[in-house]
Amino acid sequence: MSKSQLRARANKQLATISPENKKQQSANICHTLEQYNNKYEIWAVFIPFVYEPNITSFIEQLWKQNKTVLVPQIDGDWLRLAYYNADSIITQWIYGEWIIQNPVWHQWLLDVCLVPWLAFDLQGNRLGHGKWYYDKFLAVNNCYRIGVCHKETIVENIPHNNLDQWMNLIITEHQL
Q1: 176 domain-assigned
Q2: SS3 call for 104
Q3: Strands in the chain per DSSP E
Q4: Which pLDDT band holds residue 176 (cuts at 50, 70, 90)?
């Protein structure tokens, strides 16, 4: 299948997941992520779209443990990391993503990046929206990469090339 066919398939699959199932999967994902709390100090997370796993409870846990929490945000053609805390003012932006108003940019390296996508394969390849933002960001950030998605969007194979960035680990309801 081509990437555009896989995107259409993933979007259809995401639409069929019940709200209860999404909630349960999200809780399981947050529980699985907890085992990485003590390994890393500086976390890039994501503020989820409605179709992505809701990792809000995990983010709150990171704050309680005084971890540095960052959110990748589009800035021109690139993703930059904005500091994220309980007092951050969040708003929707160009593609419907949630961003921090008046961001304070993080200028240093990070330890781990949670990456949301439409689909992953078991080799660590991922399928995004085709804009290359995360690929460019991850290409210059040597961090541990954890892909996060609903189990329904794991596929056998995603076409990829040398510009596509892969994941070290994929977490759905379980660690893969």
Answers
A1: no
A2: coil
A3: 42-44, 68-75, 78-83, 90-92, 98-100, 112-116, 119-121, 126-127, 144-148, 154-155, 169-171
A4: low
**The domain spanning residue 107 has which CATH number?**
3.40.50.10420
How large is the average pLDDT for residues 85-104?
A: 83
Residue pLDDT, tens place only, 48-57: 888 899 999 9
Report which of 162, 172, 163 is spatially closest to residue 121, judged by C-alpha positions: 172
pTM over the 0.85 mark: yes
b vs e for 83-114, b when ≥16 Cβ sit within 10 Å of the residue's Cβ? Answer: ebeeebeeeeeeeebebbeebeebeeebebbb
Range of the domain at 137: 3-171
Tokens of 95: 């593609």
Task: Report the distance separating Cα 87 and Cα 10, nearest Å.
Answer: 34
Q: Is residue 106 part of a domain?
A: yes
